[in-house]
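Dear H.,

Thanks for agreeing to be a second pair of eyes. The structure we're designing against is below in C-alpha cell form, covering all 253 positions.
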C-alpha cells in the first residue's frame, strides 16, 4: 500500500475517533446509554445518530424519529420508535392529545391485560367498540345489549279535517343502521270514518329524534272521530321497532 493511501486512511480513522469522542462527552448528547459505566461502540454509534437529528428513548434504549411541537415545547411531541409504536406527549392546557378533522378507524385487538389497560378495540363479531379494563374487554356503549326501539313520540293529536298536516317527533334508542324508514300505519280492524291512508318517510342521515314532517292528516264527513294509527321504524338491516300508538283526533268544524 502506498504511503499516501496509508496516511489518508489513518486521517479518516483519527477524525472519526475524535468526532465520536467529542459527541460522547458532549453535554447535549447521551453518553452511557446502556448504563454499564463505560463507553463502548454502541454509545458511539448512538451519539452519531443523535447528532444526525434522531432522538433516543432512554426507557426502551431505542432510536426513534420524532416531531417537536410548533413552538419547540414540548420536544418529542410525537415520535415513532423502532418497534413502530407511536408515542404522543401529554395534552397541553387540558386539550385533547389527538384532534381529527375526519374519521378515525379502530382495528381489532385480541389481548386484554394489565399492559394493555386503556386500549380501545373494534369487535368485528359484536360490531361495537370495546375498552380493555386491564383484565377483560368491556362494551363501551352497550350498543349490543340494547335493541332498536322507539323511546317516545311527540305529536299534536288534534287534526282539522281537510286542514294542514301535522309532524311527529320520534325518539329512538339502540344501535340502528341508517337509513331508517318510518311508517305511519292505519291500524287494521278499527273504524275508518273517511280517507285513512298510510304514510312513509326515509331518513338517510343520522338524527335523534327523527322529525316525520306532515305525517298526520285527515278528511272526514260528519262528526269528529278518533282514528287509530301506529308508528314503526325499520333500519337498513331490516330491524323493526315495536308499533307505538299515535291516535288521531280528526275534527270536523
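And this is the sequence the design step returned. I haven't edited it by hand at all.
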Amino acid at each position: 500500500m502506498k504511503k499516501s493511501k496509508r496516511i489518508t486512511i489513518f486521517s479518516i480513522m483519527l477524525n472519526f475517533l475524535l468526532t465520536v469522542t467529542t459527541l460522547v462527552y458532549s453535554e447535549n448528547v447521551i453518553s452511557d446509554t446502556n448504563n454499564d459505566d463505560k463507553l463502548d461502540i454502541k454509545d458511539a454509534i448512538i451519539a452519531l445518530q443523535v447528532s444526525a437529528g434522531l432522538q433516543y428513548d432512554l426507557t426502551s434504549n431505542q432510536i426513534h424519529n420524532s416531531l417537536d411541537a410548533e413552538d419547540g415545547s414540548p420536544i418529542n411531541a410525537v415520535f415513532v420508535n423502532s418497534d413502530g409504536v407511536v408515542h404522543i406527549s401529554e395534552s397541553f392546557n387540558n386539550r385533547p392529545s389527538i384532534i381529527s378533522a375526519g374519521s378515525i378507524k379502530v382495528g381489532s385487538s385480541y389481548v386484554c391485560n394489565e399492559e394493555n389497560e386503556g386500549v380501545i378495540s373494534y369487535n368485528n363479531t359484536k360490531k361495537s367498540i370495546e375498552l380493555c379494563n386491564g383484565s377483560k374487554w368491556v362494551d363501551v356503549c352497550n350498543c349490543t345489549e340494547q335493541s332498536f326501539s322507539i323511546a317516545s313520540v311527540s305529536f299534536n293529536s288534534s287534526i282539522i279535517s281537510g286542514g294542514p298536516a301535522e309532524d311527529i317527533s320520534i325518539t329512538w334508542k339502540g344501535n340502528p343502521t341508517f337509513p331508517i324508514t318510518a311508517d305511519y300505519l292505519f291500524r287494521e280492524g278499527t273504524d275508518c270514518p273517511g280517507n285513512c291512508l298510510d304514510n312513509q318517510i326515509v331518513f338517510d342521515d343520522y338524527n335523534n329524534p327523527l322529525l316525520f314532517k306532515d305525517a298526520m292528516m285527515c278528511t272526514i264527513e260528519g262528526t269528529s272521530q278518533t282514528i287509530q294509527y301506529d308508528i314503526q321504524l325499520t333500519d337498513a338491516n331490516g330491524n323493526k321497532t315495536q308499533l307505538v300508538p299515535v291516535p288521531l283526533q280528526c275534527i270536523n268544524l
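Two observations from my side: Residues 105-145 form one domain. DSSP finds two helices and 17 strands in the chain.

Warmly,
E.
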